[in-house]
Amino acid sequence: MASPHAKLLTRSKTPFAEAPWQQGLPSPYYKETHYRFREWLKKWVDDNLMELADEWEEIEDDAKLAKVFQLFAKEGFLLPFALGVRVPQKFVDMAGGQKLPGGVPPGEWDNFHDFILIDELARTASNGVVMGNYGGLAYGAGPIVHFASEGLQKRLLPDILTGKKRISLAITEPSAGSDVAGVSTVAKLSDDGKHYVVTGLKKWITNGIWSDFFTTAVRTSGKPGDQKGISFLVIPRSEGVRTTKMKMQSAGSGTTFVEFDEVKVPAENLIGKEGEAFKYIMWNFLHERETIIYVALRFCRVCIEDATNHANRRQVFGKKLIEQPVVRYNLANMARQTEALQAWTEAIVYQHSKMTTNQANILLGGNTALLKAHAAIVVSDIAREAGYLMGGTGLTKGGIAARIERIYREVNGLATPGGSVAVMLDAGVRQAIKTVGLDPSKL
Ligand SMILES: Cc1cc2nc3c(=O)[nH]c(=O)nc-3n(C[C@H](O)[C@H](O)[C@H](O)COP(=O)(O)OP(=O)(O)OC[C@H]3O[C@@H](n4cnc5c(N)ncnc54)[C@H](O)[C@@H]3O)c2cc1C
């Protein structure tokens, strides 16, 4: 009945702390390569990141943070970070034949490896550790991987995929967040057509402070509010680029304010076609939203694990907390929401794995937006309930509630970036109305 590979896994003994497949229950989704990868990665995270996560937000020394990023680079993480759900051989070659983490053969890498990758990193309960190392590369390199010319890919990706250079995604502006079409950063092509001159502001750019390149949404024509006329330019850190680190509620991912003041950018740094980037931005969001869902899901399980362990230890009114029916009722509410989130997430991961990128964007874009909103709401509820269950300890930094306290401060960092809850709920319904009944084979 159980998967023959389940014996490969070490697992928490706390109920609901692991996904059903990780507890040894049968699942149609996971193959031997997923079990092996999960086990390798769990140990790697335990050995390299767990302790670090407790101090991550306090680290001011950029050289120390850079060393951790280089650890990821050495272990081959940057390829799957940048590529997401598939790792074609041409990109492995651009990375100098780099091996994937855990020795997964590139041809086997799929959506479930991608899910496991983020799931295990998120066990640190630190969005700073995850997004501080993953966010800029994953979301900033995506448009180059999917839409740039072979020439631009060959020029930029070898250094990016091996960690010699870092990159981030710069779309949001002080006056254009949810409304991406409001972008007003201007890129004007020079008379000889050799370069663009870029002027504008970008806000909340993950990893921006450490970035050598910014995959930047600029306006090459039209006016703020027009979807047409937005283009993607890769802007190197150069004269006229100024970055300032922002102080955030949950720190550690290098959130940055970026100013472009008449920056000269080679015309060959244009990604895809001029004026077409609104579509590229929307496509890029699909994977970004999936990864935020995975973080939220693991955070739910971490909260349940640490709160349940506390309830089994803590004596109040002469009894362990777990012996109180109200406490079990609260844990049950956390568990049912998490298990439902797991099932919906696995269904979407599976559906995506069977589709082309075009099909996935059209047919899964709406449901993924709904799921992203749902995940943010669920993790917010669970972090709050788990915090209550810990009493005063839940408000205390460090110690047995450290992960719950951190996650509680992270929940809006999952609700807002990549599309806020209200915007995702609306987008989910609008997309469903547009795509209902479409035949995947005709897309
Ligand atoms: C930690 C962090 C990291 C980020 N990283 C990046 C990054 O790497 N690159 C990047 O480009 N951007 C990044 N962002 C920006 C992020 O994408 C935006 O914050 C997000 O899109 C929301 O935009 P806004 O903050 O301007 O809010 P607004 O768009 O001003 O929205 C404010 C509120 O109004 C609500 N709202 C908006 N429209 C509607 C509507 N039609 N109906 C009902 N309610 C609505 C929203 O839900 C939200 O609650 C990051 C943000 C954060 C906080």
* CATH fold topology of the largest domain: Butyryl-CoA Dehydrogenase, subunit A, domain 3
Radius of gyration: 22 Å
CATH class designation of the largest domain: Mainly Alpha
The biggest beta sheet reads:
4 strands, mixed
CATH architecture classification name of the largest domain: Up-down Bundle
Sequence stretches where pLDDT stays below 50 over 5 or more residues? none
Spatial strand order of the main sheet: 1-4-5-8
Share in helix: 40-55%
- Number of strand segments: 10
Number of helices: 13
Number of domains: 3
- Find the CATH superfamily of the largest domain: Butyryl-CoA Dehydrogenase, subunit A, domain 3
Tell me the span between the first and last alpha carbons. Answer: 38 Å
The fraction of residues in strands falls at: 5-15%
The helix-strand sequence is HHHHHHHHEEEEEEEEHEEHHHH
